[in-house]
Prior knowledge:
This protein is of the alpha+beta class. Helix content is 16%, strand content 35%.
Amino acid sequence: MPASAQYADVSKAQTGLRKTPLSIVSKNGKHEFTVEIADTFAKQQIGLMWRTQMADNAGMLFDYAKSPHRMAFWMRNTVIPLDIIYISPKGKIVSISANAIPFDETPLWSSGIAAGVLEINGGLSKKLGIHVGDYVYHPIFKNAR
């Protein structure tokens, strides 16, 4: 398939993704995001590929709540650096792969079982003081308030 056709397929898959609010509670406060939900295999395969920018209050949440497991993400065809945050079924952050390198295909493994993975702009976790052990609140996690 020509590159232009592949890019068209990616653009099509990235349109119309459902957006929902998500919050992270850390020692220094509550951080609010609006996240796109990747809840199908096709959406999860494409993720944030080829995006050239993302707002600091935006992100993508990969929903694996039906089958939590230890997992790895990579940066294939991902243009912007990302913080990849692995989240337990109860919403606790189990690991963060900070400033993942664009286009790098090295697997970045979670440190434990994850039911969701949040991708935000690279370096934002450090800037906001988000750490392992903090909690992410979203309906896919079993911690609704």
